[in-house]
Amino acid sequence: MTSDRPNGGVGGGPPDDELSWVQRLMLYFTTPRRKTAAVLVAVAGWVAASALEDLAETHVRFVPLSTPYFYLAGFSLAVLFTQGAVFRRPVRLPSDVMLRTAAARFSTRDSWTSPQGVSETLSTLQAVFTRPGATAREVDSSVWVELGRDWDTTGLRHHEASIHRKHPVFLHFFAAHDGGGTTVTAFSGDLRLTGVWDVLKLSDEMAAAAVELAREATSGESDGTPGPGWVSSPE
């Protein structure tokens, strides 16, 4: 089990509650006015880079400036405007921000109630996904899960396609206090996954099985039948 800390990206960083300057920028550029200002600054910078490029070409030698600036500025704006959702893993930000980006990134949303407290629920979710082939990272009041090629897919219809998988299956679980218990919200079905039909179907089946494992572990409701992810795991 690992925990994501502020460092402008994901993982590592000092174990404190202060956000890095990159994370603060992500939270700052949330209004249309600020986003417009950022675009105007980026365009002005591109114009200046083009002018310097023309000047260098005329008086000294050709120095390419505008093209690398264009790509760098475009990527920076994408990171800021999406609150880091363009990254492979989520940046540690307040849960409400990550919840919004998760809703835009994943196709499936499930929700249920756990009798456990928030902290206990997060710990339970991490414990569920410490089996072979799975990793779980606590990010604020959520748990980010990655299911790798070694995650047991026994019983899934398209399990034979596992050898062709190139990317992990991602899921994001959120825990929020709700009266005497905790509401767990699970996001799955990453819209950015690509591959052949069998691999995509297997990814969907793995995500559904993982959500069901999380539901059983946190809600206490189970039929006692081992499912994918448990079969080949050590006791």
Question: Which helices and strands, and how do they pair?
Answer:
Blueprint: E1 2-3, H1 21-28, H2 32-59, H3 66-81, H4 95-105, E2 106-114, H5 118-128, E3 134-138, E4 142-147, E5 169-178, E6 181-190, H6 197-219
Parallel strand pairs: 1-3
Antiparallel strand pairs: 2-6, 3-4, 4-5, 5-6
Helix pairs in contact: 2-3, 5-6
Written description of the protein model:
It is a single chain. This protein has 235 residues and is an alpha+beta fold. The protein has six helices and six strands. It has helices at 21-28, 32-59, 66-81, 95-105, 118-128, 197-219, and strands spanning 2-3, 106-114, 134-138, 142-147, 169-178, 181-190. It has a six-stranded mixed beta sheet, with helices on both faces. The protein is globular, with a radius of gyration of 22 Å. The model is unreliable at 1-16 and 231-235 (pLDDT under 50).
Major sheet strand order: 1-3-4-5-6-2
**Uncertain runs with pLDDT below 50, 5 residues or more?**
1-16, 231-235
Helical residue percent? 40-55%
SS-based structural class?
alpha+beta
Distance, first to last CA: 17 Å
Strand count, sense and barrel status of the largest sheet are: 6 strands, mixed
Radius of gyration, in Å, reads 22 Å
Q: DSSP strand (E) fraction?
A: 15-25%
Series of H and E elements: EHHHHEHEEEEH
Number of helices: 6
The count of DSSP E runs of length 2 or more, i.e. the number of strands, is: 6
The gross shape turns out to be globular
Mean pLDDT over the full residue set: 81
